[in-house]
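Bump. Still looking for Transcription termination/antitermination protein NusA structure tokens.
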Amino acid sequence: MNSLELVESFSEFKELKSIDKQTMQHVLEDVFRAMLKKKFNTDEHIDVIVNIDKGDVQIFVNKEIVADGEVEDQNTEIAYSDAIKIEPDFEIGEEVSEEFRFNDFGRRNILSLRQNLISRILELEKDHLYKKYKERIGEIITGEVYQVWKKEIMVLDDENNELILPKSEQIPSDYFKKGESIRAVVSKVDMRNSSPVIILSRIAPEFLERLFELEVPEVFDGLITIKRIVREPGERAKVAVESYDDRIDPVGACVGMKGSRIHGIVRELRNENIDVINFTSNPKLFIQRALSPAKITNIEIDEEQKRASVFLKPDQVSLAIGKGGYNIRLAGKLTGFEIDVFRDGESDNEDVDLEEFADEIDSWILDELKAVGCDTAKSVLELTVADLVQRTDLEEETVQEVLRILRSEFE
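Sorry for the wait, here they are.
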């Protein structure tokens, strides 16, 4: 293998991995110098000239001309009689530059040189990839699903770099097949066995924020600011937005005409319900907006304890809590308050709809009770444990727990 073949093979690698010419030149020079230093014990008398554009490497060994019989080191000195064979005008004390031929390295050294070259390139590529994605943390990327495993998905970006989307960072209802296009944010970059591992996420709040930037020009331009985002991936999300321009309705702009802008985001998030609300520094008003669509009659706030007591009419409680308790849980995260819900103005004898216990009792248990005609708390309490076990598919232990929750409502 000659110098041209070495440089050409490196150039092919360089084109594939996008390593700049200057870096390539330094790598080539370092690798050759290391080999020459090993051969001559020093590289101070050697010039390495790398011409990337021509694909050529020239090595010149500089030797001092000494009198015949006084050569002590053949690597750095040359006898006068040998020097004048190269150029008759040379004199003792001058320097002679001899071009070092690759064949002088020997086959084994040439192969070692190539291995070192490839090793250095791989190290550079790993470093380049790590830095590139370290700077892109929080950015959205589009890739292609290359391999689907039980615990993770391998995604290829537009440069065929391998990215990982773990199962824990996927929306629960996500389902991807090989070859499909996928969008996610860069969550973090780890180093494993000296190789960068880029982790993607579709459940991070930043993913939803980047989607808003893509779908809503006012968010991308900074006219609308996303103040806070909280999510239960695949179920529900709440986004607090604010605009410093009074002429812009931030909620209306984010939702779009007939929901045109928000629908694209909802589809990407597997039909995740998204509540967009106006941000305010007034905690009472912010809590009220966060618990929408429920209508609140009164709010009492403890700023020190970060607790809020919210009073609602009985028919609004289930709306405030939401299916599976997502609404009240997300409202608490969004506002930073622990929210307690109380029914306002109901008498001790008033019955309570079973749906209002959705935050304490699993929905499938409520469905079992409704299937046997029990739609309210008192209609369940009127039956014995044995009756409920016999009429439903619930176990006795489950029935006992349900009755305990329902009784506590009237105590």
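Residues 36 and 70 are 24 Å apart (CA to CA).

Edit: fixed formatting.
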